[in-house]
Design goal:
The complex is a heterodimer of chains A (about 425) and B (about 160). Chain A has about 425 residues and is mainly β. Chain A is about 10% helix and about 35% strand. Chain A is built from five helices and 30 strands. In chain A, the strands form six sheets. Chain A has a seven-stranded antiparallel beta sheet with strand order 2-3-15-13-27-30-16, with no helix packed on it. A seven-stranded mixed beta sheet of chain A has the order 21-20-17-18-26-19-23, with no helix packed on it. Chain A has a six-stranded mixed barrel with strand order 4-5-10-6-9-8. The longest helix of chain A has 23 residues. The two termini of chain A are about 30 Å apart. In chain B, strand 4 and strand 5 form a beta hairpin. Chain B starts with 8 loop residues before the first strand and ends in a 15-residue tail after the last strand. The chains are: A mainly beta (about 425), B alpha+beta (about 160). Chains A and B meet through strand 7, helix 3, strand 18, strand 24 and strand 25 of A and strand 4, strand 5, helix 4, strand 7 and strand 8 of B.
Amino acid sequence: MNWLTCNMTCKPARQFIALALSALLVSLVGCSSTPPATSGGGGQGGGSGNVANISVDGGPEGNYGNGAFTSVTICVPGSTTQCQTIGGILVDTGSYGLRIEASVLTITPPQQTDSSNNPIVECGIFGSGFTWGPVQTVDMTIAGESASSMPIQVMGSANFPDSDAPGFCTDNGAEVGTSADLNTVESLGANGILGVGNLVQDCGTACTQSGASNPGTYSSCPTASTCVTANEPLASQVVNPVSLFATDNNGVVVELPGFSNGETTTVNGQLIFGIGTETNNGLGNATIYNVDTTFANLSTEFDGVTYTDAAFLDTGSEALFFLDSSVTGLPQCTDDELYCPSGNVNLTANIEGFSNGNSGTVNFTVGNGDDLISGSFNAISILGGLGVDASNNSLYFDWGLPFFYGTNVYVALDGATTPGGTGPYVAY
Amino acid sequence: MAMGDKAVKLIQTTALAALFMLAVPLTASASLGGNFGSVQADQARLHGTLQSTANSTYTIHELKAPTGLVVREYVSTSTGEVFAVTWQGPTKPDLQQVLGSYFQTFKSALQSQKTSRLHRAPIMINQSGLVVQMGGHMRFVVGRAYVPSMVPGNVQMEEIR
């Protein structure tokens, strides 16, 4: 890949080459695995039994750094013909439930309605932006696992435009059409999101309640512009698909191999369903770090300071986003929130369970973010950036996808029984 | 690093005061750059409880909403103005409400930001007149906003959390 090396002046050419190369790789994968009628490139997936293939390959737009993509098959509930396999689905341990961009849908799953027969529409708040769109119901299959009559979110539906979303969701329109508006394939960089983190629902009990206790995640919409906050039962909420599987339903294992030199074009790995349920998902000697049941966070100690209940392991984050320059001593890049040390810097932190007392040292490296992100490599193990201040007297520590390269990570569901005890926890 | 050693005063509002605040016109809502009146307006909008902690430089008004959202507003002792706002919770506050007159600046800055290969990264606005940072993951959303020129001279930004 050395022939791609050049300076910033030829960046457009590099991006074109990267795009062309991604397209080539995608078509090669497509030829060899012949998935049924897959929409979009990136993360063509496939797999069998409890193993789904995942790829850090740039995604369907060919421009996504550090995203692990897979494919899912969704059907209109009960149908074996109204089905669609969709690739380019981002694997996300930082969220819960399946979300699909409306623009890639070729089937029409039924709309979820409330007791007054009004459509239910949802606002999903992510660290990086918002999603807005109707809740629809599908039968989903990934590898050999199935979830029936599962509520999902359809993002960017023409029937429910962003302009009608509640003010808090879009920040009164400020985020509509920006990079924080995740309702297009272009902005998201993916055809959808598969949320397989520690929690079961994407909102939980709060959204079932009336009045001020309800955060307004779900809306009942007689028309697109007359939405009001809905009391959404737990069983109707967009849900972590793993919790609906008949077996292998207590969590997942994310396996991505490590690589040398800090960056590479493509990394192929596996998303394995279940923990200790098959011969391929045993905990072995992994250490268990429990997470809290509200935020699904654990703690991290850095340079003598512990950031309590403000750290998380998130495949959906593209870098290690942690603390800020005043704490780390690493300079921020000029154009974005990445760190830009002049050379690679080796750092150490300790991951600590939320309350189970387990602690383990993590050695990691941060390189020059500007140089790394402007290159043509899809997988970058040494990418770091700034986290954001949390208000509980701590900064946050987002162990993004770079953490997962070369480390098998177990993610146990809230309340699930596993050989390592009851979830929620992460283990590695 | 902790704020606790600086705290010298704790003010708990009464139920009566909370009732009064519900009567504050919502149009008075304008937190960043506003005054304590705007803090009270935010409390009404959030249906929150208010707890205030002061040191010689500023007072932290911490609003806790029934949803679990916590909003902290930092009011300068010398100017009486809200110079910083932070939030943390399962979802975020209405930013038009908490950014007040700075909302348009935020909106313009966000809309002029270019997209890059970073698709799922914290949202950061870093201008001389306004800093906004938002991040986290689903069901854990954190952020802060402050006006650099309004931050009292002896305050380290690490204190604003």
